[in-house]
Amino acid sequence: MADATGPDGLPIVVSGTDVVAGDTRVLAAIDLRIVAHRRTFILGPNGAGKSTLLRLLHGLVAPTRGSVTWGGRAMRPVRQAMVFQRPVLLRRSAAANLRHALALAGVRGKEATRRIAEALSSVGIEAIADRPARVLSGGEQQRLALARAWALAPEVLFLDEPTASLDPTAARAVEGIVHDIGARGTTIVMTTHQLAQARRLADDVVVLSAGRVAEHTQAVEFFRHPASEEGRQFLEGERL
Amino acid sequence: MIGRLARNALALVLATLAFGAMAENPSIVVASTTSTQQSGLFPKLLPAFEKETGISVRVVAVGTGQALDIGRRGDCDVVFVHDRVAELAFLAEGHGVKRYPVMYNDFVLIGPKSDPARVAGGTDIAVALRAVNAARAPFVSRADKSGTYEAELRLWKEAGIDIAATKGPWYRETGSGMGPALNTASAMDAYVLSDRGTWLNFHNRGNLGVVVQGDKRLFNQYGVMLVNPDKHPSVKKDLGQKFIDWLVSPRGQAVIAEYRIDGEPLFFPNAGTDS
Amino acid sequence: MNTISESFVLALTMVANVDPQIVAVVALSMAVSLSSTLCSAAIGLPLGAAIAVSRFRGRSALIAVLNAAMGLPPVVVGLVVYLLLSRAGPLGRFGLLFTPTAMVIAQTVLITPIVAALTRQVVEDAWVEYREYLHSLGSGWFRSTQTLLWDTRWSLATVLLSGFGRAAAEVGAIIIVGGNIDGVTRVMTTAIVLETSKGDLPLALALGTILIAIVLALNLGAQGLRNWAKLRHG
User: Fold this and answer.
1) Owning domain of residue A95
2) Nearest residue on chain C to B236, judged by CA atoms?
């Protein structure tokens, strides 16, 4: 379901970028290139700056130094979506949450209704379309957040540890949905500290350590021979 | 549903806002004193006038001083008050057209049954006030710019007492209208000067009763004036004058004379006299 | 029988007999206070929401001013509105003094800061939660404000009710600008003042009882609505 006019918010290019919050340098000297149709996983221990890097790529955080461009432009493109670790749901029904996001993207009326139905059934929650979003279970809430992103048919989807607060069953369901969205041609950038998840889903891996990119390699390569010391330690940590 | 609610609410707002401008009846605003309203005279007088002329009268009842101020700002058409000195000043400033005497009633000295100053039954207000002062008996004063307060100050002077110099904790300046002053006196078993009309229509009397009356210095004259339309163009000259003419006409004077509580007249019409 | 029990009986009698004069006074009270609540909603909701989602120089000073203005002395507001609307004042030519409109204006001045300050608080709490998501959607300032106002509507209903309660219970400002004219600007509170002046304390208290009962009923209704909304919408 890639856009007919081709990706225009890609590649995302980060060059020489620092992000400073207060007096802490959260990200330092980042150079990164996210290309179309790949599932890129940002790995690293807690506090490495994964969430900030994701927000930088999405345009929610401005670089203190350096630059971020999307398809060569400094303007953050519209056709991106993000799913947060704790889903932000409006105090409305599940379907109304989708309708709100679609309206902001300029999709209304019958087209909106069609996309809402399609997205809800894609994540398997069409039965609860009219239930208030905020009384759903944690797993249902995260699936709803994914459906909402799905309905927007974004060029790039960012996911910030979407399974971190879910039980294993719900987490596997979410992984399946992420896989399906990627299979449609949507470029995916996701943070996680679960190596197993990256092993199952990632095309590319970015290892982040203390605010710096330690390595950016293809997943297959990474799991076989991590190029960086940090990557190796991270992999060994899993074996322990 | 929200939309319909909002529409209904909006309609209600517009209706309320239109209230002031609604052309139901021609109307005038009369600034008057609390005594005319709280004595129950206006609720009797105004319907009679409205029935005969179709003009509705909107009364703003405040102290005489404030009523005259409302006139000075051009915010009413007619003032109907009781302080001859202040009324003449109002005329001299050019805010009023002409002053018409309408009626009088009288002030009475109200006091508690215990009567600590031993003045009950007296007819000489000066003697009574001297006794209140000598006994340092609690006395409630309006201490506002009302006609009653101006009268009270004149009476202290008549009694030969410089109240500003001699007042002590016994002399309680409330800065309130007649009714609140009576409520205060009732709660404190104090003496208080009141107009008879408000007193007769006052319910919360407690231990209070009339202790001194009948002195001619307790005479309380009411006058009515049209606010000067040359100075205040918004004044409804014709309607206001109609109200004044009716008040001083035999018909209006008769309604005033007929108003009684328990058979006792509250106001005595005296239009056409030089009062 | 003492004054208090006497006035309760009187209040019940007046309600039971649907005393037309009382009904007119209650209706005017409600119309005036409802109008001023709607006016203050029209100003205070967008203003409070705008402050909640904006960052600018002097913002915290503005919030402090707004919070302080929640306690504006009614008599002072009444006096200022009186001087503005007086024939001798800047808005004198509209002839609004001693009309219900003047009372609506005075009450609106009194309760708009309450509505704006409480709205700011409610919307800002939601804003903290929604900010990243709305930014992520590319929702502009105006659309974000709209979303937040809609999503906090049940809390805001309570905010408006606080404003309404204050307006309906207030007397200092409206007795000055309305003049307490029988049948035109006499509302519950000014009628209570008048009956107290006449020393008719049972009648005054009976009117007060009705006023309190109305405000109480409205608040119970709003609380029920809010509980229902919390259950229904989370």
Assistant:
1) 89-151
2) C95
CATH number of C3-233: 1.10.3720.10
Which residue type sits at B99? R
Contact assignment for C234 to A105 by CB distance below 8 Å: no
Q: Are strands B78-81 and B96-112 parallel, antiparallel or unpaired?
A: unpaired
B128: left (phi over 0), alpha (psi -120 to 50) or beta: alpha
> pLDDT 10s per residue in chain C (234 long)?
577 788 788 888 877 787 888 889 999 999 999 999 999 999 999 999 999 998 899 999 999 999 999 989 999 999 999 999 999 999 998 999 999 999 999 999 999 999 999 999 999 999 999 999 999 998 988 999 999 999 999 889 989 998 999 999 999 999 999 999 988 999 999 999 988 888 888 888 888 999 999 989 988 888 888 888 877 776
> Which structure tokens are listed for C212?
């309190």
**CATH homologous superfamily for the domain B107-218:** Periplasmic binding protein-like II (3.40.190.10)
C135/A135 Cβ within 8 A: no
Distance from the first to the final alpha carbon of chain A: 41
In tens, the pLDDT along B59-101 reads 999 989 999 999 999 999 999 999 999 999 999 999 999 999 9
**Smallest Cα distance from C150 to chain A, Å:** 9
Q: Which helix (H) or strand (E) holds A34?
A: strand A24-34
Nearest CA in chain C to A85: C133
Q: Is B189 helix (H, G, I), strand (E, B) or coil?
A: coil
CATH topology of domain B24-105+221-269: D-Maltodextrin-Binding Protein; domain 2 (3.40.190)
Question: Is residue A226 a part of any domain in this protein?
Answer: no
Name the interface residues of C facing A (CB cutoff 8 Å). 129-130, 132-133, 135-139, 143, 147, 151-152, 232-234
Cα(B179)–Cα(B149) distance, integer angstroms: 13
Q: Which residues contact A221 (CB under 8 A, 6 or more apart)?
A: A227
Distance, CA of A64 to CA of A16 (rounded, Å)? 10
Sign for the CA dihedral angle at C122, C124, C125, C129 comes to positive
Which residues of chain B are at the C interface, by a Cβ-Cβ cutoff of 8 Å?
A: 9-10, 12-13, 15-17, 19-21, 29, 34, 37-38, 43, 58-61, 72-75, 177-180, 182-183, 186, 201-205, 232, 234
| Nearest chain A CA: its distance from C127 CA (Å) | 11
Domain spans in chain B, listed from the N-terminal domain onward: 24-105+221-269, 107-218
Q: Give chain A's domain count.
A: 1
Whether residue A91 contacts residue C151, with contact meaning beta carbons closer than 8 Å, is answered with yes
CA gap A105, A79 in Å, rounded: 8
Domain ranges in chain C are 3-233
CB contact under 8 A, C199 and B178: no
Does A94 reside within a domain? yes
Whole-angstrom distance, CA of residue C81 vs CA of residue B168 = 37
Q: Would the pLDDT of A3 be above 50?
A: no
